[in-house]
Amino acid sequence: MQEPKPIELALPRVRESLRSEVVWGSRVVAVGGGAPVVVQSMTNTDTEQAVETALQVKELALAGSEMVRITVNTPEAAKAVPYIREQLDRMGIDVPLIGDFHFNGHRLLTEFPDCAQALSKYRINPGNVGKGDKHDRQFGQMIEAAVRWNKAIRIGVNWGSLDQELLASMMDENSRRAVPWDAKPVMYEALIASAIGSAKLAESMGMPARQIALSCKVSGVRDLIAVYRELGRRCNYPLHLGLTEAGMGTKGTVASSTALGVLLQEGIGDTIRVSLTPAPGESRTQEVVIASEILQSLGLRTFVPSVTACPGCGRTTSTTFQELTQQIDDFLRAQMPVWRVRYPGVEHLKVAVMGCIVNGPGESKHADIGISLPGTGEAPAAPVFIDGEKRMTLRGENIATDFQKVVEDYIAQRFTAAPSAAISA
């Protein structure tokens, strides 16, 4: 009988790409070229409201967004950008800002040089920089600003605002084929041609290739996978990955996770954004949390301590373990902006909160610190396991509070505090 071979690990593939650098002051965010996949997000405030926008940028940055995009759509918004940057700098938030330009970006970047300098990157949509003879000239003005101020760019194509002249030309070309393609492959080809063609045009205008990132965003999961597989095959520019208009709540979360998970596992994607529609009253930071969880679940990045918890069943009719899981998860996330600086490595912590004796002790032993709460009919005792060994048993009505204190003490003892950490609150 042939000796069995070990099962191959499901490691993500590697796509070689250029490395772009998005810079503000001493902060350098590397995108592509083997750098860790970067999380980014976008504000939904009116950029003209500088203080409100700066506060939301801060909130997104503290949640883990490593770059934040803001809309720059009017002269008033362009005038506000330097003040937004100034407010962030005063708060100790050095996250790079990306300016999102459509239609009039050429004028805004030319007429408001302080705005052009305060941004770290420009998003350019080749589908709406101008038609006919104006296209290349106005596109060129944006590239000229990027070169002058040494800024990175993203050429962001979107199938909702695709260059109609290019699409019409490709449709005509398709009609002349002996066997014409279906409409969707022609659309895919137009998206990719617009992105790569615009990048080559930018290079011809003096833009360094390594400072160009591309995106071809669509709203269908399988469409996104098809387009990015081909885009990744045809070029070595860093790729911005995201499902545009993903939707709200469960739908947006599942669609984004499915599409991005497939592509990231194939090594496609150097920076990601989850375009989630927030529910009324929901924090904009939810899109950052989901993007971070996608990368962490794939083993590509580690942002926050992981909390393992059972789903519950007839053995766990008590809600105590559910409440404790929520409490611990919220507590760990809330502390991370401080702990990330104070306790280097704390993001690798593994916590288990289990609801009964079936898998509770075993799962808790696999975690750095875990608790197995009593299930229905079990003795009102909760053993706590630390580094694989049972260290104590918690009892009484304050098990949740007591366990949170145990977690805090464990973190303080295991992770060495940085002696002179500058913490942005």
TrEMBL record:
Its cofactor is [4Fe-4S] cluster. [4Fe-4S] cluster binds at C310, C313, C356, E363. Pathway: Isoprenoid biosynthesis; isopentenyl diphosphate biosynthesis via DXP pathway; isopentenyl diphosphate from 1-deoxy-D-xylulose 5-phosphate: step 5/6. Keywords: 4Fe-4S, Iron, Iron-sulfur, Isoprene biosynthesis, Metal-binding, Oxidoreductase. Residues 307-408 form the IspG C-terminal domain. NCBIfam families: ispG_gcpE, PRK00366.1. Residues 29-290 form the IspG TIM-barrel domain. This is 4-hydroxy-3-methylbut-2-en-1-yl diphosphate synthase (flavodoxin). It holds the Pfam family GcpE_C. It catalyses: (2E)-4-hydroxy-3-methylbut-2-enyl diphosphate + oxidized [flavodoxin] + H2O + 2 H(+) = 2-C-methyl-D-erythritol 2,4-cyclic diphosphate + reduced [flavodoxin]. It is an enzyme of class 1 (oxidoreductase). Converts 2C-methyl-D-erythritol 2,4-cyclodiphosphate (ME-2,4cPP) into 1-hydroxy-2-methyl-2-(E)-butenyl 4-diphosphate. Its EC number is 1.17.7.3. GO terms for biological process: isopentenyl diphosphate biosynthetic process, methylerythritol 4-phosphate pathway; terpenoid biosynthetic process. It comes from the Bacteria. Signal peptide: none annotated. GO terms for molecular function: 4 iron, 4 sulfur cluster binding; 4-hydroxy-3-methylbut-2-en-1-yl diphosphate synthase activity (ferredoxin); 4-hydroxy-3-methylbut-2-enyl-diphosphate synthase activity (flavodoxin); iron ion binding. Binds 1 [4Fe-4S] cluster. It comes from Rhodoferax lacus. Belongs to the IspG family.
